[in-house]
Specification:
It contains no helices and ten strands. Helix content is 0%, strand content 53%. With 146 residues, the chain is mostly beta strands. The two termini are 20 Å apart. The strands form two sheets. A five-stranded antiparallel β-sheet has the order 3-1-10-5-8, with no helix packed on it. Strands 2, 4, 6, 7 and 9 form a five-stranded antiparallel β-sheet that branches. The radius of gyration is 16 Å and the shape is globular.
Length: 146
């Protein structure tokens, strides 16, 4: 009998983030299957509790006058990239970035979003422009399944 352990989260931040080569942190939890999915608080580095195929989705809004160069990272290796910039400086076009990734993870593998360069727009609790969703889409038990 196969028992499927649900693993999912939807987190965000309303804080403005501007840095070079830093891990994006999240402070608002909308839903989470377990509190121990991340290394520490604030939520930043997801640690796979189960072997399987995971789906991650990242969204953010560029701070006016800044680029956004971000990477979706697994075990310190970039797996997907996202880039945009606010051309006008007033963010009149609302430069929104988004990227998704489906990737196999082993128990203990780490996933995070790295802001390589730029600034992500802040907001308030009702305007959390930066968000990350993740879920286990397929549980794998046999080493030959990948």
């Amino acid at each position: 009998m196969h028992i499927f352990q649900e693993i999912f989260f939807s987190i965000s931040t309303s804080k403005r983030i501007q840095c070079f080569n830093c891990i994006v942190t999240f402070d608002t939890v909308f839903t989470m299957s377990s509190e121990d999915l991340f290394e520490a608080h604030p939520k930043a580095i997801f640690v796979a509790p189960k072997r399987g195929i995971y789906y991650f989705q990242f969204h953010a809004l560029a701070e006016p006058g800044h680029p956004v160069k971000a990477q979706l990272v697994v075990n310190d290796k970039a797996k997907a990239f996202v880039y945009d910039r606010d051309v006008s400086g007033g963010n009149n076009r609302f430069a929104m970035v988004g990227q998704s990734l489906m990737v196999p993870l082993e128990v203990g593998d780490r996933f995070y979003v790295l802001l390589y360069e730029g600034a992500l727009k802040g907001g308030d609790i009702s305007h959390t422009f930066t968000s990350l969703n993740g879920l286990l889409v397929a549980s794998l038990t046999n080493r030959n399944e990948l």
